[in-house]
Amino acid sequence: MIFKGSLFWAGLEQCGGQVVQLLAFAVMARFLKPEDFGLYAFANIFFVTTRAVVGTTFVDSLVQKKIGLTPLAHPSFWLVGFCFSVFVPLISGLGYLLEKPLHMPGLFPVLGLLSLGFFSFGLSVVPEAICVEHLKLRPLALRRLVEQLAGGLVGVGTAVLGWGTYSFVAQVLTGSALGTILLWSFTSFRPVFCFNFASLAPLRSFFLKRLATVFANAFGLRMDSFFVGALLGPAALGFYAVAWRLYTVTSVFTNHTINRFAFPYFVLHKDDGEKNQQSFRMFTQLACLLGSWGYLALFSLASPLLISFFGSQWKPAIPVLMALALLGVVGNSLFVGNLLLRALGHADLELRYVLLPILTNLCLLPFTTPHGLLAVVATLLFSTFLAAPLLLSYLKKEARLGWADILRSGIRPWTSGGIASLVTWFFLSHASMGANLNSVAQLFIGGVMFVFTFVLIIFLVDRKFIVSLFSKNIL
After folding, report:
1. Which of 10, 174, 301, 341 qualifies as a FRET site for 396, CA 20 to 30 Å off?
2. How many whole angstroms separate alpha carbon 95 and alpha carbon 50?
3. Of all helices (H) and strands (E), which one includes residue 59?
4. Would you give the distance in Å from CA 322 to the centre of its chain?
């Protein structure tokens, strides 16, 4: 059963942490030099990427195998702890090897200290997986908020004291340690030492395929930026990076929030085909509701949003942001199917589906990128559409689901978002110009207009589903 609070806690975990982190960074930026940020950003490539790829793979694999209901949790805890302990000397050694060739003094000690965060993060993986499996999302949201808030306060304090790049290190280590302690206080799991590789055999196949998928995703998410920077230069990459950042923040509110509780719910009912079909349609409708609201608002408010927050010099990024918003609508309509395949244990099918657009982009981007940033986003859209039939063929075979299920679930949210977006765009393009409104006023009035129009239409065309979201349970 999914209670109405699940969406709230999932959203608070994903969005609240982002907001707190952004505020801390904004304050720290007033006391730190650009080279302090640059050194930390470079070190973070290795630390955060390793932590995200391996951590996500372990959590998803443990949830898919329902470790909270089996003795698998105990050997898994020791395996995770060993893996993350090994990363400490490996990442530290990498910093030592790269410091002199890259002319980055301080990279070795910064990366070495950052890698100590692997210890606390490794301790949190199994408790996190157990919470996700049982849909206990409140502890994870509180853990994330405490981690970001406490770490942010330490980071700001040490930045004021003149710690430079090490203020970021203090922020990460403090937040990670306190977040892990809080998470353990919410769970009853206490590890017992028992370990043998034979007991982990059920985990191995899914883990390796999921690891390949997560790694491929991490590579694919950076590929377009690489080609933009290499072929169009740093200025174009700056415009693209700003638009991409706003696009990813919207994704946190939409896709990441639903992913947090949809995946364990699918796992919970993976042996009940009828239940999974029902929940797939509900989650797709919910995803399209949030996606239409988020991405289509981003589309219609791109101009005042960019100018208000970043200044008029970022106007070339406006059409890029609008194109990325359309890409988000398409991806948002499909990602629930990917979650269902993963929950059913078909990590091999998920890997094939993920690899197709990545390989397509790898082949096309060197040729399309020289034609401009819009050509880059058009390539991403093309590869997404190209992979969609493959995903739908897998869904039809494994879960008897297809295009009709997605269209029935998404048509009302898409219609509401499309009309709200057109009304808002018309106002910003014509009426606001005559009134000589500045960008901040356009953003505020346009935002209110979009929300009002969207809510009005969605209540007219899909009142039953909206009311169900506020009932005791929606499934």
Report:
1. 10
2. 14
3. helix 34-64
4. 19
